[in-house]
Amino acid sequence: MDKNAVRIANQRLWDAHPELGGRSLSTDPADASLRTEWNRYYQNAVSATASQPKTKPSPAQTPPPATIITPCPLAPQAITVNNCQENKNHVQEGDIVLRGERGDSESEFISKISKCDYSHAGIVAKNERGELVVVDAYPGRNSAVGANSVDDFFCGHGATHGLAVRPKDCQAAKKAAQWAMAQTKEPDYVFDIWDPWNKDPKRLYCADFVYQSYQNAGVNLVPEKMDFLSDANRENTLSAVKESEKYKNLPLYERALATDRKIAADLKKKAGGTSQYITPCQVASNPNMTKIVAFEKPVPAPATLANTEKF
Amino acid sequence: MPETHISAQQFWDYYFRNAFLMLERKNGQYTGQIFVESENGLSKGLLEKRQQKFVVIDMTALHHYDYLHDGRFALMLQRPTDPSEAFTAVVRKTYPYREAAPFGKQRMSELFSEIYLHWHQSSAPITLSGFEQIVMNIIAQYKDSDNQQLAALAWLLGEQRQRSSSKALLAIVSNAAFVPFAQHRIHFTSVDTAFSALWKVNDKRSMGDLITLMRNSSSAGQHKIAPLFERLVSTTELLSLERCDENYFSPEFWERFITPRRNYTDTEWDQYDTDSLFWEIRFLSASRLSATETIFLNKLVNDEVQIVSDIAREGIGVASTH
Description:
The structure holds two protein chains of two kinds.
Chain A: H1 3-16, H2 32-50, E1 79-81, E2 96-100, H3 105-114, E3 120-126, E4 132-137, E5 145-149, H4 150-155, E6 161-167, H5 170-183, E7 190-191, E8 203-204, H6 206-215, E9 226-227, H7 234-243, H8 245-248, H9 252-257, H10 260-270, E10 276-277, H11 280-284, E11 289-296, H12 305-310
Parallel strand pairs in A: 1-11, 7-8
Antiparallel strand pairs in A: 2-3, 2-6, 3-4, 4-5, 6-11, 9-10
Chain B: E1 3-5, H1 8-16, E2 22-26, E3 29-35, E4 52-58, H2 59-63, H3 71-78, H4 83-91, H5 105-118, H6 128-140, H7 147-160, H8 166-173, H9 188-201, H10 207-215, H11 219-233, H12 241-244, H13 251-258, H14 266-273, H15 279-288, H16 294-301, H17 306-316
Parallel strand pairs in B: 1-4
Antiparallel strand pairs in B: 2-3, 3-4
């Protein structure tokens, strides 16, 4: 018998008779009329297959096209919080979260060249216990993708400010979050912000991971990557290098030799020849996103004369 | 600077991570240069001064590596070479992914089902030329919403490793955002996948078109095309950014290399590829060379990568020694 035709005939019979609950037919006389019907489906399937030179696979279930937006229930009014632990009370599955660390020289440098006030991105998902966590790609892990608490995301790592945004398409958000959570079980993700060959989805960085999560839900969050050495951005990048502490601390002769061309060439070599990447701001600034929470850690008040007099 | 002897495992890890700034394959060994990593394995930031180190491994150590238990090699032999079987395996989520596809297994399955329903003529057989034609049809009426289907198809063409697919793949990269006067601005996911696929199909005779494209591209495009040339033409020495410096991004540099070989036939390029620095290209060469090319197949019979040597032996009808 033609196995493919059997499969098709079974499916057609089960579709026509849901009361069968997907069971196979027996030789019992009670199934006689069903067996006749099945035979008809089988013969039709055999004839259809015979007319085609190659076997056609049965298509998997097709998801709704990515362009159809299913509105989420009433996005709340955007709020600002000062306590990092409050963020968890406002986020939900699929939200994209960003954070920044003012005062860290490398983070500030990346923020300047990417024209983005945030240096890290993650996606909110539900773990096996139904708790909300942030899944992100982060350096220093065995596999780069992992999940931690929402508090850890906003309160740890010297975060000084943050943001949570919500996609208008809540089905895509849920699917993206589920895909992201599933990746925490994959052992072979490698953190790599500058992937010279730039083609392997398993070598990734934070914003790339969020981008991929939504891609796997059928949504392209980012139309074009940021190029920090494009004609439009080159000057900004070079001035960020020159303003950095590390550059200012170079010996005078080294700074004298560091022409713009040399600085750009050096950056390109360190980035493996590429100067394009996806910034945290890009994954959060899609027009189909709504801002939910902005987090700003209060800046400690500068010591005043009155304060110092107390000590 | 002293050289550090590395194991075969380390060598292949560096190779697959594209970590070599310089690499030479000659005199019975590989010698390379890599960035020194910090103790936790992280590469330092863009502002740090990064130290480099020299590494070396001899061919004997590489010959003894267990290639058949390393999926990065073994899966090359397990991929379905028939387009219809490959398509079915992707839809059924059973495809033996050696190199990650642009999307996860589930999404790839959904996309190929969509392609089947929307683009494939119901009575037509599933063939490679059919997929190539679908790519051209999608490009002809490209919409942003087609991007993921296009990326999935580009990936499949790469996996099939047939020269004929270079035309469709070139059509994708020729419509990238980095080409100022292109008809479309195809999304970077499809473009990146097409670049990867162009390396896998290894159609050297399309390099003239790539030079023209490089010349007509912005600097962002030149940054994309140069690594493809690096992979397609490097033989005893890796023609890397570190090695070539700013020439690396110049179309003229690559043109000077290609011009003397512009009349090469496919067979002559297969012969050239027996000296490639990349084992994937040597593997293709061993698969593509006809049994009469014994001189060139014999060069690959003792290749340090077992699956290359096995296929070369098969080509000339010699039993494997492994």
